[in-house]
Design a protein that fits this description.
single chain, about 290 residues, mainly alpha, 10 helices
């Protein structure tokens, strides 16, 4: 009873701390982004940037003396272990996803280089085959990571908060919301990366060409891009027959747009990986204090 009273006495202030309000604000921004009609690659890239800002706010909450004292005193409770497990699982998922993206980026760059030099024959055919193989490998690796996320969610049932005071429950809830949002964004990215390789049909090439001339899929802005399935159609069109100048130019523009998007994702994942390391270190230092 004495311990319980002591714990209640150091819980968070009755009014929400600005750090908590900032977390809720960033969560709302990410929810709005998820519901937007922005293309998937751009949406996820922006989501990673928003997620990093969310973790900046969470670190501010974790740095509060009241939060540190609470975590230290409750370090043996299930919800604290859930918090620690969630941090290391997200770190693993982020690192593995970045490895997948980095490998794919290399193949996109190689094919882009061949098209830029307008090399034909066996050279371009080999590069296209490498690209297709990399897409299939990315698809396979992304599915494995999706399975890992599903297992992580199934095994990470949230512990009950029935015996916690209101302020402590609010802090735990907001930290869990951050974890849920993180999982959602990584899951969206991996679902995109697991898109099956799509082979073109003769009728589809005319649509790609038509869209290109209308500027629908032209790379006119930094973040404009085609989805992976449309990239597959374009690449298949120059590999299934002798590549003429028009198809080479269109494929070059499509890959350039994809290359920009993949580069943004790669940078976002690298930055997020560093942020997750910092957050986990803060948690461990606070709990072991």
């Amino acid at each position: 009873m004495a311990n319980r009273c002591h714990i209640r006495s150091i819980s968070l202030p009755s009014r929400s701390h600005p750090a908590t309000l900032k977390i809720q604000e960033e969560l709302n921004k990410l929810r709005t982004l998820e519901a937007s009609s922005t293309s998937a690659l751009v949406k996820i890239s922006n989501g990673l940037s928003g997620l990093e800002e969310l973790y900046n706010c969470m670190d501010e909450l974790l740095s509060l003396p009241s939060t540190q004292q609470t975590l230290s005193l409750h370090q043996h409770e299930k919800w604290v272990n859930e918090l620690l497990d969630g941090s290391v699982n997200l770190l693993d998922i982020c690192g593995a996803t970045r490895d997948v993206i980095s490998k794919f980026k290399e193949n996109v760059g190689d094919l882009q280089s061949v098209l830029r030099r307008r090399k034909g024959g066996l050279c371009i055919e080999s590069s296209i085959n490498n690209y297709i193989c990399s897409r299939k490998k990315m698809n396979k690796d992304a599915k494995k990571l999706l399975a890992a996320i599903k297992k992580m969610v199934n095994n990470g049932g949230a512990s009950a908060l029935l015996d916690k005071d209101h302020q402590l429950s609010s802090m735990i809830s907001v930290l869990r919301e951050v974890n849920i949002m993180s999982i959602s964004i990584f899951q969206s990215l991996l679902l995109l990366l697991s898109t099956p390789v799509l082979k073109s049909r003769p009728s589809r090439w005319s649509l790609v060409s038509k869209f290109m001339h209308k500027g629908v899929v032209a790379c006119q802005e930094k973040h404009q891009n085609m989805e992976l399935k449309n990239v597959d159609i374009t690449i298949s069109a120059i590999s299934s027959e002798e590549a003429d100048l028009e198809k080479m130019q269109i494929a070059h523009q499509v890959l350039k747009a994809l290359e920009i998007s993949i580069e943004d994702l790669d940078n976002g994942l690298e930055s997020m990986f560093r942020r997750l390391i910092k957050t986990r270190a803060s948690l461990l230092n606070t709990i072991s204090h």
